Predict the 3D structure of the following.
Amino acid sequence: MGRLSGFRYRDIIKKLKRAGFEFYRQAAGSHEIWYNPLTNKYTTIPNHSGDMPEGTLKAILTQANISISDFLEKL
């Protein structure tokens, strides 16, 4: 279990909203596209039940240009 374990979809969305992201559109299946107009960055979020896999959350943060430390501490 790493530092990014135990986060659910709802927790991730709350933190992304604090970082300036907003819902952009529904993507294929249960995935959503979120957009930050300040940074002009998009990220794809799977809306699944249960905890988000660490690798998936790391990919989301990379797309969003948010460091792991900022995600864990500041947001």
